[in-house]
Amino acid sequence: MTSIATLGSHCSLQVLKGAKDEGLKTILICEKKREKLYRRFPFIDELILVDSFKEVLDDKCQKKLQENNAILIPHGTLVAQMSSEEIESIKTPVFGNKWILRWESDRVMKEKLMREATLPMPNPVSSPKEIKKLVIVKRQGAAGGKGYFMASSEEDYNTKREQLILEKVISKDEPLYIQEYAAGVLAYLTFFYSPLREELEFFGVDQRHESDIEGLARIPAQQQLNSQKVPSFNVIGNSPLVLRESLLDEVYTMGENFVKAAKRVVAPGMNGPFCIEGVYDENAKFTSFEFSARIVAGSNIYMDGSPYYSLLFNETMSMGKRIAREIKNATASNELDKITT
Ligand code: AMP
């Protein structure tokens, strides 16, 4: 029997609940400090206790996963805590395309893939000297927005960067990525591409709540001006959103363009869940600043099914369950190699 394994964090509860609902065995790779939390959930069949998630690379852990015929579901914690080389060296079959995770982590590659997919993007700013209007300064990888800051001039950039270095939020030699700030309504668009059915599904939309940029917006301008703190974009949670129906056609087009581009640049393409992240401006024009090439934590909102999936499935379907369904279907038709790398 196939089993589903994932790291205990991010969206692991949803992933394993979905797998259990589909009748698969569930395994959690769990840091010892979180054992108590995860023991609360009866749908987790087995815990592999580790001191650090990196142990997933050790023979001992991989052997255990192999004995269980496990498929590893990658999520944000895997991308944030392991290098691309480490992820690519995982011997356990990884759901989706582990090679595309490098394109998510590396800013230059990320921008290249987004251009290939013709996603409308904010202009990158090549150096602090070139800052002419409001920009957002980002760190590499899935840092969850921690240590990001906004700047409106080179001087502003230098002051804030130095402050964050002093506060040990970022390091001195850390390469930072500067991008024009895009204002509007945040929308994180989640899709699922099935290589078995060669079909793209639109799953849903979420918004991220980020501290302390949101906290700052709750205080009057007078106090904001007095605040010396550099606000960051650390994700605290997510909430649901539905789009004007007239926007859906373009949403599907963006998803399809992304799938086609990924097929061209990083075989076997964008299989499984992914997310295109951006904002809608006052003309309902979408600008995308990011993508995630795997399940996003925003899908946790829809553990009981999303509005758009209730249009496609006559049953409650979470993203975790959709992944497990794909694995079940591929097992039945002997096509696991099509959906894992
Ligand atoms: P990211 O790591 O790129 O997903 O960015 C984290 C957060 O920063 C996002 O959820 C947005 O709130 C914000 N953000 C990132 N890029 C931009 C941008 N170009 N314009 C406006 N906000 C942005």
Report on this structure.
The chain is of the alpha+beta class. The protein folds into 3 domains: 3-94, Rossmann fold (3-Layer(aba) Sandwich), CATH 3.40.50.20; 105-120 and 184-217 and 231-339, D-amino Acid Aminotransferase, Chain A, domain 1, CATH 3.30.470; 124-180, ATP-grasp fold, A domain (Dna Ligase, domain 1), CATH 3.30.1490. The chain has helices spanning 12-21, 35-38, 59-67, 76-81, 84-88, 100-105, 107-116, 154-166, 213-217, 221-226, 248-265, 309-312, 319-332, 336-339, and strands spanning 3-7, 25-31, 46-50, 70-72, 124-125, 135-138, 149-151, 177-180, 185-194, 199-212, 233-241, 272-280, 286-292. It has a 5-stranded antiparallel β-sheet with strand order 11-10-9-12-13. α1 crosses α13 (319-332). The protein is globular. The two termini are 19 Å apart. Adenosine monophosphate binds next to β6, β10 and β13.
Sum this structure up briefly.
The chain is an alpha+beta fold and 341 residues long. The protein is built from 14 helices and 13 strands. The chain has three domains: 3-94, Rossmann fold; 105-120 and 184-217 and 231-339, D-amino Acid Aminotransferase, Chain A, domain 1, CATH 3.30.470.20; 124-180, Dna Ligase, domain 1, CATH 3.30.1490.20.
> What would CATH call the class of the largest domain?
Alpha Beta
Percentage of residues in helical conformation: 25-40%
Q: What's the CATH superfamily of the largest domain, by name?
A: ATP-grasp fold, B domain
| Ions, cofactors and other bound molecules | adenosine monophosphate
First CA to last CA: what distance? Answer: 19 Å
How many strands in all?
13
Estimated structural class: alpha+beta
- CATH level-two architecture of the largest domain: 2-Layer Sandwich
Spatial strand order of the main sheet: 11-10-9-12-13
Give the low-confidence spans. none
